[in-house]
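I have a small job for you when you get a moment. Would you make up a two-line entry for one protein for me to read? No commentary is needed, just the two lines. Write everything out right here, beneath this request.
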Amino acid sequence: DSLTRLKMPDIDVDVEVVEGTTASALRAGAGHYPDTPLPCELGNVAIAGHRTTYGRPFHNVDLLEKGSEITLETPIGTCTYEVSEDPFPVSPNRLDVIANTPEEATLTLTTCHPKGSARQRLIIKATLVSSNVRNT
């Protein structure tokens, strides 16, 4: 079941996000890390997606720049995040990038890096700039 719709107009992405980051979940589009806040909530919402398989929703996230907009459309409203720093690579075991930010509404996208390899993860960090969802 779809949790939210993720849109990144700068790179022409419009993809469904489902709950979970298992292989089967990511076949459906992008996946929400279950232990992170729900889309548009306070904290660090984390979403994973493939770059080269299963529809490749995050194929060009490396082209996002500081200031690029990412919108999450949920059944209860829409929120927009702005990329806060250029995408950066980390080792696959760096889970601190999806750690909660309890005082701030943020979004983290993760994907494999470089394209076609799982050697690293590419991280995109964004900060909430607008929302019409209550209690965010």
Remarks:
- The chain has a mean pLDDT of 93.
- The helical segments are 23-27.
- Residues 68 and 86 are 10 Å apart (CA to CA).
- The first strand starts at residue 2 and ends at 8.
